[in-house]
Design goal:
Chain lengths: ~290, ~600
């Protein structure tokens, strides 16, 4: 279904919206904090040895007798990494998460950014190798369609270390997950930020994650490890679980806010293109 | 505790599939948990209850087994070892006194409720039958253990206005054996000396208060010949009040708007002395005697009497010296005209001396013969006159001698003779010579008076016209007037003993039935009953007239019934236990499936 024309048309609409919102050329549409030799003025700086004297503002020198150089934004070729959670906990919302990943990847490839898509469990699995240009759209969609969840307990921290070991260059990292990591998410997010990556979180949780709709005697089975346990769920137990989920999500929100990491949370009930539209209209994933 | 149907215990075999099904049923459904580590908190909270939860399914199964065992045990019809399981006959008294109100509810209703309670307590574990008893025992069901059938039978029992008959009970218990069914009478005890004569019966007392009732316990109304007031009334009342009460007795004729007399009565506790008074207007028809009081039993507050029309007896006198004979008839031919002097050919009764031929007398006329002489089929061996020392009355209650005193006569002119075979001698001399006798020859009824009225100056005796009147009314068939008032519960043959052909009977409700002479027909309904035999028709007023019923003597009854069964059978308790356990199990079930 990812290669269906109708689906691609929905992705195309999102790309057009992205162009309109971002209002830039195909290259270097994305703002960078790095200063360099671009055409877009960024700031002034005192001349220093080795600076490009072509950047000296002679008008300022004529008026104040100081050597001041103009700084321009670097227009660079950015790599975007999408870390797509493929653990068993994503089973119920994996299609939705892949749709979101497809939309983000489609926009990135059309912006001529470099795109890498990883599967995230206790390690990293490659879904799309580093690719660039519109020609990589079809492999992206095909690979996403072929992707499936894997067994094993999600270890976000370990996956981030693996990621850093493979990709040392600074990049934009979008984590697309339910963030229900047994070992927590703080270590991973800290690690990525420490290595200067622009980290964004897109949290996908469905109603079964947020609410406990079971009542009575059940045998709970962990979807990732296969552990089982019998439990009688009353309203009290359901409330306890829901409070724990709420607390977990609050921790994620506060952690992202503290670190300046952009976070958006959604559920499969909301159409994926509407989520992307909201993100674009807000100017991207903002903290 | 023992069991009436121990075979039902085989039903426990059904536990095996039940247990198997239960274990299959209680396996919980598996649910995938995406955030197992978040459930850890919940697991921590529930650790304290783990033990109970681990064995909860077993608890639940044990409870279900307990329910099943209780149901099987109840189906096996358990009973307490102390319970008597003899067959039981419930005799519910539905006599008139059971219509008495106890706090607004009749005693009959209380008895029926008590019987229903007993049937429900039996719970189908014991055979029982239901009968009503008043003037007779009527079964409403056979021996059965079906509570529904027994309850329906109890419901069928309706109230009556007849007094309770101890004879009916005595007949019922005659032939009872110690091993036969128990006989439990539910009654208020208004049976007279019931506590002393009945054996083989158990009594359950219904009602606890006998005070507060007055009733008419005896009443009669008769025409009085040659009296100023031609109708006499005899009335007796009884009271169960503890204090004397004053009640007006209202006398009506035919309808309530024809009040003839009001008699204020001061009624003392117990049975009062009879009241006798006369009524000047002797109108024939229906008469009502009503105690104007609202008390606990209404049936005995009114008596019904029927005063028949007066038909004079046609009497003829034959002979030359008729003066005194005529006068004796004329004495009763004025006023209400009890007798009427007619020609011999039209007479029903002919009075004649003993030596006259009867050529002029109608062949079906009865004869009153004085001073027998000559040959006659009505005497034999006629001899000389004799001197009567002492005259002996052989039947003082006979209508021929009831109203006068034969021993006060000198019986002068009496002759030695023999009465014909089959004659009924009412007065005889000390040597046995008949002085007054009744005989029948070829259908003709004859009364022979063996004295010479002229010699004995019997014409001048006040007994002479009385004798003529008694003989005339007796021979004409009016000597024993039909009763004007009878008590309920009587057989019609008791007050119409001469009706050997049977009769047609119409009740106050208008129901008509034909009765043969051998057929018992007890009168139960209060009011006026009509009887018809051939061309003759009579009415009688039927009233309760029973002091044992009116006095509501409930305190005289000594209860002697042993408990039929304990109030709640083991099956009841087992069923209740099963329900309670089932509720407990349903709570566990609810917890398992709904949380």
């Amino acid at each position: 279904m990812f290669t269906d024309p109708s689906f691609i048309r929905r992705l195309d609409s999102l790309y057009l919206l992205a162009r309109k919102v971002l209002n830039g050329s195909l290259q270097a549409d994305r703002q960078s904090v790095r200063r360099g030799t671009g055409v877009t003025f960024a700031d002034y700086s005192e001349y220093y040895f080795g600076a490009d004297y072509r950047a000296i503002d002679w008008r300022v020198y004529a008026r104040f007798d100081d050597l001041i150089i103009k700084l321009f934004e670097v227009e660079e070729d950015t790599t975007i990494h999408i870390l797509l959670d493929t653990s068993r906990s994503m089973e119920g919302k994996f299609l939705y998460a892949r749709q979101l990943a497809a939309a983000l990847g489609y926009i990135a490839l059309n912006n001529l950014d470099r795109l890498v898509v990883h599967g995230l469990t206790d390690g990293l699995q490659s879904i799309l190798e580093s690719s660039r240009g519109r020609g990589a759209v079809l492999p992206l969609l095909s690979n996403l369609q072929a992707a499936s969840t894997r067994s094993g307990e999600t270890d976000f921290g370990n996956a981030c270390k693996l990621f850093q070991a493979r990709h040392r260059r600074r990049a934009v990292v979008i984590v697309l997950s339910d963030f229900l990591f047994p070992a927590g998410f703080d270590e991973g997010l800290s690690f990525l930020q420490w290595h200067k990556h622009d980290v964004y979180c897109l949290q996908v949780q469905d109603t079964d994650d947020l609410r406990c709709r079971w009542k009575g005697d059940v045998e709970l089975e962990c979807v990732e490890t296969g552990q089982r346990r019998r439990l009688t769920i009353t309203a009290r137990e359901a409330a306890l679980y829901e409070a724990a989920v709420q607390q977990w999500n609050d921790q994620l929100r506060s952690s992202c806010a503290r670190r300046g990491i952009g976070l958006a949370a959604t559920t499969p009930d909301v159409p994926f293109d509407q989520v992307i539209q909201d993100i674009l209209r807000r100017g991207g994933l903002v903290a | 505790m023992s069991f009436a149907l121990p075979l039902m215990w085989w039903g426990l075999l059904a536990l095996l599939p039940l247990v198997a099904i239960y274990f299959l049923k209680v396996r919980p459904t598996r649910k995938p948990a995406t955030a197992w580590f978040l459930w850890a908190k919940v697991f921590e909270e529930r650790r304290a209850r783990t033990l109970f939860e681990r064995f909860r399914d077993v608890f639940s199964l044990l409870l279900l087994i307990a329910v099943f065992v209780a149901i099987v045990a109840a189906a096996a019809r358990p009973y307490w070892l102390g319970d008597s399981r003899r067959d039981l006959v419930l005799l519910i008294d539905n006599s008139a006194s059971m219509n008495t109100l106890e706090a607004g509810v009749s005693r009959l209703q209380l008895a029926k409720q008590a019987a229903a309670d007993i049937v429900q307590a039996l719970d189908g574990n014991q055979r029982c039958s239901v009968a009503s008893v008043a003037d007779s025992v009527v079964f409403h069901s056979n021996l059965t253990d079906s509570p529904r059938e027994l309850l329906d039978a109890i419901e069928q029992i309706s109230s009556t206005s007849v007094p309770a008959s101890s004879a009916a009970l005595a007949q019922f218990v005659s032939g009872a054996t110690a091993t036969g069914p128990r006989r439990l009478v539910l009654s208020d005890g208004c049976w007279g000396n019931v506590g002393t004569w009945v054996e083989g019966l158990e009594w359950l007392k219904i009602g606890n208060d006998s005070a507060g009732n007055v009733g008419i316990v005896a009443c009669d109304m008769q025409r009085l010949p040659l009296a100023d007031s031609p109708v006499g009334v005899y009335l007796q009342v009884a009271s169960s009040y503890n204090e004397p009460v004053t009640v007006d007795l209202a006398v009506y004729h035919e309808t309530d708007d024809r009040l003839k007399k009001i008699v204020p009565l001061e009624i003392k506790p117990g049975i009062n002395a009879a009241e006798v008074w006369r009524i000047t207007e002797a109108d024939e028809g229906r008469w009502f005697f009503r105690l104007e009081i609202e008390d606990r039993l209404a049936d005995d507050n009114q008596a019904y009497a029927y005063l028949p029309p007066l038909v004079p007896v046609d009497v003829a006198v034959v002979g030359e010296d008729r003066f005194f004979y005529d006068n004796s008839v004329q004495a009763f031919a004025t006023g209400d005209r009890w007798l009427r002097l007619v020609e011999p050919t039209d007479a029903a009764v002919v009075m004649l001396p003993g030596n006259l031929a009867m050529t002029e007398v109608s062949s079906d006329a009865a004869l009153l013969i004085f001073n027998p002489s000559g040959e006659s089929p009505y005497w034999a061996n006629l001899a000389d006159e004799m001197i009567v020392g002492v005259a002996t009355v052989r039947d003082e209650d006979h209508p021929l001698v009831r109203h006068w005193d034969p021993t006060s006569l000198a019986w002068l002119g009496a002759k030695r003779l023999q009465a014909p075979a089959g004659a009924e001698v009412l007065v005889a001399a000390d040597d046995g010579t008949p002085l007054l006798y009744r005989a029948t020859d070829r259908g003709r009824r004859v009364v022979v008076v063996n004295l010479d009225p002229q010699q004995a100056d019997f014409f001048l005796s006040p007994w002479f016209p009385v004798l003529v009147y008694s003989v005339a009314t007796h021979l004409s068939g009016q000597g024993e007037p039909k009763p004007t008032i009878v008590a309920t519960g009587q057989d019609w043959r008791e007050f119409f003993p001469d009706e050997s052909q049977g009769l047609e009977w119409t009740t106050p409700a208008g129901e008509t039935r034909s009765l043969t002479a051998a057929e018992v027909g007890r009168i139960g309904d209060l009011g006026f009953h009509q009887f018809k035999s051939g061309a003759q028709a009579w009415q009688v007023g039927v009233s309760l007239l029973q002091s044992t019923e009116s006095l509501l003597q409930v305190s005289d009854l000594k209860e002697n019934s042993e408990p039929v069964t304990r109030r709640w059978s083991p099956a009841f308790w087992l069923t209740a236990l099963a329900i309670l356990v089932l509720i407990a199990e349903s709570v566990l079930y609810h917890r398992r499936w709904v949380g």
